Model the fold of this input.
Amino acid sequence: QVQLVESGGGLVQPGGSLRLSCAIRGFTLDDQAIGWFRQAPGKDREAVGCITRSEGDTHYSSSVKGRFTISRDKTKNMVYLQMNSLKPEDTGVYHCAAETRWYGSTCPPGFGSWGQGIQVTVSS
Done:
């Protein structure tokens, strides 16, 4: 059973940076693709991006491309979401998710395991 635990959220001013971490337990990063998602109050959940299982290719939504970076540390079984130039519209609950049955070079169409999420608030 895969378990994912997010950390690193909080309050940051517009233009600031935060790094979210996703600790993966139960599987190694070689076995799964990892995605990041966010949900703002009153809005649908939005895909932020993903990192693929084998090559570690990264893909981003147009709303965060150039500002956010997904990376991983296989030795620690951790995935990170570095968020720079944050805007108020980046506010929301951020989740990491894992999918073990996807071998493609793009983001999986769905994810089978989810973390509980962590709040990110961008406000002055």
User: Anything to note?
Assistant: The two ends are 40 Å apart (CA to CA).
